[in-house]
Amino acid sequence: MNGQEQEKQVFDIYEVFSQKTFKSSFEHQFSLLAPNHEVAMAMARENFLRREPCVNMWVVKREDIYVLPPEERKYLDKLDNKEYRETKGYGYLAAKWKFYREQFESEYKRTE
């Protein structure tokens, strides 16, 4: 490669994410400069895998990551009319089952 070709080669920034176990979530590890995805993955393996074990790795070009603009973040607020989708409403079921079980048992004893 002569000097002119070397100046034309553009390196992109890649972000490296890893998953330590199959049940864990992906975590950002570091950024690196590479000319393409293959080299970026090889560099990520060389730099990260010899330090920490992981079961999966993502190498993503930084410009391909979409960040939600601040003016659109208000749409992430929870809607007030969606409480029926939350599981917190089922806490009363144990007491309800106990009531019906006791009612059934008392009626069953009367019929004997």
Give a nutshell description of this structure.
The chain is of the alpha+beta class. Helices cover 34% and strands 20% of the residues. It has one domain (9-66, 87-111): Ubiquitin-like (UB roll) (Roll).
Mind explaining what this structure looks like?
With 112 residues, this protein is of the alpha+beta class. It has a single domain, classed as Roll (Ubiquitin-like (UB roll)). Helices cover 34% and strands 20% of the residues. Strands 2-1-3 form a 3-stranded antiparallel β-sheet, with helices on one face. The N and C termini lie far apart (98 Å).
Write the layout of secondary structure elements.
Elements: H1 3-8, E1 12-19, E2 27-34, H2 37-49, E3 56-61, H3 93-111
Protein name: 1,2-phenylacetyl-CoA epoxidase subunit B
InterPro entries: PaaB, PaaB_sf
Pfam families: PaaB
**Helical proportion, percent range:** 25-40%
- Please write the CATH class name: Alpha Beta
Structural class: alpha+beta
Order of helices and strands: HEEHEH
CATH architecture: Roll
Task: Tell me the count of domains.
Answer: 1
- Overall average residue pLDDT: 84
Shape: elongated
Main features:
3 strands, single chain, PaaB, alpha+beta, 112 residues, 1,2-phenylacetyl-CoA epoxidase subunit B, Ubiquitin-like (UB roll), 3-stranded antiparallel β-sheet
